[in-house]
Design goal:
Helix 7 links the parallel strand 6 (156-160) and strand 7 (184-191). The protein starts with a strand and ends in a 15-residue tail after the last helix. Strands 3-2-1-4-5-10-9-6-7-8 form a ten-stranded mixed sheet, sandwiched between helices. It is an alpha/beta fold and 326 residues long. The chain has helices at 11-20, 40-43, 52-80, 95-105, 128-136, 148-151, 165-175, 204-236, 250-261, 283-291, 307-311, and strands at residues 2-7, 30-37, 85-92, 110-114, 141-144, 156-160, 184-191, 241-247, 265-270, 296-300. It has eleven helices and ten strands. The radius of gyration is 22 Å and the shape is elongated. It has two domains: 1-148 and 300-326, Rossmann fold (3-Layer(aba) Sandwich), CATH 3.40.50.620; 155-263, HUPs (Rossmann fold, 3-Layer(aba) Sandwich), CATH 3.40.50.620.
């Protein structure tokens, strides 16, 4: 499994690196640590710098400084995960573009990155780079949030499930990983609030019809959940997998369920459109990624010819921005 860790010099990236050291269960064989530096001319008014030699010198100084820091980070990860083959690189370009481009070029199986945000009573908001990578990445993306106290060893996992093929992709992804013994998985599906129909202004006949529909929907949801639980149970042990169908808005109920369960990781599949149509994160996926206080892993279903490939293709207009300094 090829992992791509995108870092900068922020504390969020340090947390992402720390979290990665708890990921022995991922079974990763290769890790590429990537740091993207904006070109000097991007930082100047009108993007103009006449002294090319001086610009190259300054950029080389930046690369050398970042390379020293990257070596130390790679060494730290190697000490924690000695079986992992770790490499690092510094690239000049635009951050979101270079992360996606590198993921395509290296056939990454998972992108790991931190998310800038505000803690406490304020929302944890995805930065524009994280959001773009989630939209366009050619592989699953893990957004690291929280700290070691909330991660543990990622032994309590909540799966947001809706019965779609994308949710089944998330289940399959979990089945393909080697999890720590005793890992607990909680599969949750949210349903329309038909059970509160008596509180609405409807007739007794209408209430009876809607309640009957609720019973049918709930029964079907539990059957789908049970099928996934059996599948995961073959990997983790059926006693370690629990399921629940919860009435309410998935954007709020899934977060509540994650908190109540004590989730250390949230996993979800995400809908998307491929080809020439822009891939859009579903509103639920984006809401969970924005508001979760623990890491969120988005498993994406994309066709072989994806927008990621197009987005990562170098063109004459961005060739200057994407040059790599070695």
């Amino acid at each position: 499994m090829k992992l791509l860790l995108a870092v900068d010099d922020s504390t969020f990236s340090e947390r992402a690196a720390d979290a990665l050291c708890h990921f022995e269960w991922l079974g990763g064989s290769e890790l590429s640590v990537l740091n993207v530096v904006k070109p000097i001319d991007y930082l100047l008014p009108f993007g103009i710098m006449d002294d090319t030699e001086n610009k190259d010198t300054k950029e080389q100084e930046i690369v050398e400084a970042r390379d020293k820091w990257m070596k130390a980070l790679a060494k730290k990860i190697s000490q924690k995960l000695p079986k992992l083959k770790v490499s690092h690189k510094v690239k000049f370009g635009y951050t979101r573009f270079m992360i996606i481009k590198t993921a395509v070029e290296e056939s990454a199986d998972l992108i790991v990155m931190g998310s800038q945000g505000r803690t406490g009573a304020k929302r944890l908001l995805l930065g524009s780079v994280s959001c773009s990578v989630c939209e366009y990445a050619p592989c699953p993306v893990l957004i690291v949030k929280g700290d070691e106290a909330t991660w543990g060893n990622f032994e309590r996992v909540l799966v947001a499930f809706d019965g779609s093929p994308y949710s089944h992709d998330a289940i399959d992804w979990i089945c393909d990983r080697k999890w720590p013994d005793g890992t607990k998985v909680f599969i949750v599906m949210t349903l329309p609030e038909f059970d509160t129909i008596d509180a609405q202004n409807v007739s007794q006949v209408e209430s009876g019809v809607l309640k009957a529909q609720w019973t049918i929907i709930h029964s079907r949801a539990m059957r789908l959940l049970e099928e996934s639980a059996v599948l995961l149970g073959e990997k983790l042990g059926r006693d370690n997998v629990t399921i629940e169908a919860i009435p309410g808005d998935p954007r709020t109920e899934l977060l509540k369920a994650a908190t109540k369960f004590g989730a250390q990781l949230v996993i979800m599949g995400s809908r998307g459109r491929t080809g020439l149509t822009k891939f859009l994160l579903g509103s639920v996926s984006l809401h969970l990624a924005n508001n979760s206080t623990v890491p969120v892993l988005i498993v994406k279903r994309l066709a072989p010819e994806t927008l990621a490939s197009i987005y990562a293709t170098e063109t004459p207009t961005n060739a200057q921005a994407s040059r790599q300094k070695k």
